[in-house]
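Regression test case RT-17, inverse folding.

Input:
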């Protein structure tokens, strides 16, 4: 009896070893695996899937049956298409996102499609990202459902996921196979993601550098962030912290924030303060900012100061002439533009002076 038990144990051990060894073999697949990813702002979305080929088969309604189906394996009796082959197709979001306008938390999800014959489909993202295909699909684990419309695409022999129409905050992902495409939009709140990251980093080493506070304030100003928060950040860069230092850049930046907050008097005073700290190029930039703001008195003051400080610089005369032109003072515009041309200006400055003179009918 003992020998029989020992023989049985040895056989089981041998089988276990054999199965374990077999599971570790790495052989090519019929449908090769792929991963495609796209960065949007500072966030990443990636899709991992297996790529079956058409191989002369009728795909839609046949190889991929329409609707929800009993696939004859696993626990699912009403399963969508697994949007690929082999294991679950998965989609990963590095940050909270929106898919077709619907919110989805950061993480990895199983990606399925309920394909219909009327050129529509339902995109299904499942919390169960580790299943094999959709054979174990469970509707109760759905994280998101979104109805989409399919499109006609050039023939794709291999199933492919692509990212198209990428912009600053979103991208269109699309499954394309045979001649059918399944596009869906993925978007991120880029500004809030960046600002949340900045707030967290300011608690660490990154909070000890003045330039980081300025960069954060500028990003918030230019991207619809909280202006009062941005004002606090630039104030930290200017004064009150051991790393603070008042510079032309941060004073001018604070002025721009105040202007956007509607505090025009404080803005104007800071621009005057910044002008006293500016080099030639910076003062020229301030002048053009004043032209854009229709504050021609300040623009004229800054350009004249630049001319006084740089009497042989062709560019400052070109800028002063452009300011006069915008003010409608043709006589002084022509005078300063001609002065610029007399100083052997660089090609770009010469071209601008000549263009402005032609616009006034002089050349």
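Golden output:
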């Amino acid at each position: 009896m003992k020998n029989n038990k020992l023989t049985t144990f040895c056989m089981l051990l041998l089988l276990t070893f054999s199965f374990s060894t077999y599971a570790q073999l790495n052989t090519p697949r019929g449908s090769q695996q792929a991963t495609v990813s796209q960065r949007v702002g500072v966030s990443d979305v990636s899709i991992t899937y297996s790529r079956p080929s058409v191989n002369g088969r009728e795909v839609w309604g046949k190889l991929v049956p329409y609707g929800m189906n009993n696939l004859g394996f696993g626990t699912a009796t009403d399963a969508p298409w697994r949007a690929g082959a082999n294991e679950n197709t998965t989609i990963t979001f590095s940050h909270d996102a929106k898919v077709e306008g619907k919110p989805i938390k950061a993480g990895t999800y199983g990606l399925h499609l309920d394909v219909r014959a009327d050129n529509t489909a339902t995109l299904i993202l499942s919390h169960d990202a580790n299943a094999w295909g959709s054979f174990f699909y469970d509707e109760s684990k759905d994280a998101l459902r979104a109805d989409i419309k399919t499109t006609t695409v050039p023939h794709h022999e291999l199933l492919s996921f692509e990212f198209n129409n990428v912009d600053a905050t979103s991208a269109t992902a699309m499954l394309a196979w045979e001649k059918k495409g399944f596009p869906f939009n993925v978007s991120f709140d880029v500004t809030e993601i960046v600002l949340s990251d900045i707030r967290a980093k300011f608690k660490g080493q990154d909070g000890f550098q003045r330039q980081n506070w300025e960069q954060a304030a500028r990003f918030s100003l230019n991207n619809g962030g909280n202006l009062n928060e941005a004002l606090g950040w630039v104030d930290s860069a200017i004064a009150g912290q051991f790393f603070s230092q008042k510079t032309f850049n941060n004073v001018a930046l604070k002025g721009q924030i105040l202007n956007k907050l509607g505090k025009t008097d404080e803005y104007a005073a800071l621009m005057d303060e910044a002008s006293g700290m500016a080099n030639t190029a910076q003062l020229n930039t301030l002048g053009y900012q004043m032209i854009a703001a229709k504050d021609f008195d300040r623009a004229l003051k800054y350009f004249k100061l630049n001319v006084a400080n740089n009497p042989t610089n062709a560019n400052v005369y070109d800028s002063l002439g452009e300011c006069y032109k915008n003010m409608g003072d043709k006589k002084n515009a022509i005078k300063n533009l001609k002065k610029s041309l007399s100083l052997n200006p660089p090609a770009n400055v010469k071209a601008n002076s000549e263009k402005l003179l032609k616009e006034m009918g002089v050349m």
